[in-house]
Amino acid sequence: MLVFGLAIIALALGMGFVLYTQGSVPIRGQGFFGFLFETTWNPVSGVHGAWPFLLGTIITSAAALALAFFPAVGVGIFAAEYAPPKIGSVINYLVDLLAAVPSVVIGIWGIFVFAPWMRDTFYIPVYYWAVESAPALLPVLGAPASYNIITATLLLALMITPYTVGLTRDAIKLVPREQRDAAWALGATHWEVMRLGILPYARGGIVAGAILSLARALGETMVIAMLIGNSNRLPFTFFGPASTMPSVIANEFREAVETMHLASLMAVGFYLFLLTFVVNLIAAYIQRKLNIGGRVL
Amino acid sequence: MAREMSDTTIAVDQRVEKIAWDLTSRPAEYDPDVHSEAVRMETRELSVKYGKVVGVEGISVPIYSNTVTALIGPSGCGKTTFLRALNRMHDLMPSAAVTGEVLLDGENIYGRRVDPVMIRRKIGMVFQKPTPFPTMSVYENVVAGLRLVGIRNRAALDEVAEQSLRQAALWEEVKDRLKAPASALSGGQQQRLSIARALAVEPEVLLMDEPTSSLDPKATARIEQLISELKSAVTIVIVTHNMQQAARVSDFTAFFFLGSLIEFGTTNKIFTSPEEQRTEDYITGRFG
Asked: How far A164 CA sits from the closest chain B CA (Å)?
């Protein structure tokens, strides 16, 4: 067991190390932050910077989490506490099903159904409205493309929702029965029991679950690569295409014939590795910090 | 380590003496003239079933005002099930079905128009493990029940908090750290905090489900002393695995076995001259 445990740690560290060595030329050439904050990514002229992708990754993931968090926590609370057992199990089943849908399937549905529908019912009308009555918004909105940040973010939110729901539900189920009983015995109503006995106990797990969902969103590749439009030119606009760290790697690795281009993709991979690693550490820290469940009372 | 052990030994010795004293100070016989008018609660043919499994069946027993009633019996005999029926905690388990009546001051708490939330405000409960709300301060824990009923007046809350903590014999230990998180207290202190929280809403009855089973002997002795002190203010029903504890703290004892009430009477009678052979066998340690 110990051997396997150590092997996994070694594997993770080894992966990070290989990414670093493979991407070390641009990172060392421009400096750790120099490469990260370089705003141009132009393989033709040989200028590589991670900033557009870092920005795209953070914008889409954070927005997806912001969209998904409250509805997902709400559904999780409902499934765990309020729903009659039968409805609760139906919800659980659907949520698990949604989590199991391969991202490429969501991606192709996005390309052929969701993105055109969004373009016709939302992007184009809003764009025309802006042209006529709020031209100041136009530079922010950008020309309406079907594949853009909003489409990608919405589908990303859909994809992380089942994780947040599941982790919320689990965190609530882990609250000890005595804790609930104590609130009930005090004459609390169901909502007051949630507020007094359950949510304070489960909040560590819920927040950590949300951050783990964020980590998933950061690394999600397929849906983004298919739907974000893949433009690495800043500035990004709401209706315009963009790129993320995973999507640029997925899109460009086959064309990366130049050594520098390939090394730069590796370097982007290295930064993505660091980013998800740090986010996971934060989740673990928050879980420990907020989770009273583990502490002896 | 050595010191702790000697402390424990002394505590046990003191308690053995106290049992003898307690038993002689109790009324030997159940006296209807003294007790009949002071019935606080009463169960009539109370049964609890989990699906097809019978928890308790046909329990009829009075609970007298300002006394301590102990529920004893071997594990799985239904005493906790019975206790939880007394403030409708079974409502929370969809599989549990309660039949029969539980009267509080003559009114059936399972009546059609009765709100279980209101019942639980009148009938408080303390559990096996201490259950302070871990993210709240000591003070907030004590006043949690008052906040639920909408009391916001700071002075009133302060007063009740102090009074409840004094009643629970915890005030001297926590008065300087009311703002500290409840999880920072020791196990025994947390249990007294749970008691203080239950007392703060001034319940008529306090149900205790093995309140000392997770505590060390010293903390246990403290809680037992507290129970004896509290009965002037509140009627207490206590489930205990510990025969000595029942003898020490209770005025009445109900012996449960396999979901039935075998015998009910004054503690003195149950422990010295029980009518049922099974009661005697259990009390003298022949089974259970």
From this structure: 23
CB half-sphere exposure, B193, CA atoms < 13 A: 33
Closest CA to A92 of A27, A168, A175: A168
Give the Cα separation of B148 and A16 in Å (integer): 52
CB A291 within 8 A of CB A172: no
Beta-carbon contacts below 8 Å between A and B: 77
A297 within domain boundaries: no
A180 contacts B127? CB cut-off 8 A: no
pTM (2 decimals)?
0.75
Q: Write out the H or E segment, with its range, that includes residue A166.
A: helix A149-173
Largest CA distance in chain A: 71
Residue A225, in any domain of the structure: yes
8 A C-beta contact, residue A143 and residue A240: yes
Among chain A residues, CA nearest to B84: A185
- The tens digit of pLDDT for each residue in A244-257 reads 888 888 888 888 77
Domain count, chain A: 1
Mean pLDDT of chain A: 85
How far apart, in whole angstroms, are the C-alpha atoms of residue A194 and residue A183? 9
Tell me if A296 is assigned to some domain: no
Comparing C-alpha atoms, which of B164, B216, B160 is closest to residue B188?
A: B216
Q: Is the ipTM of this complex over 0.90?
A: no
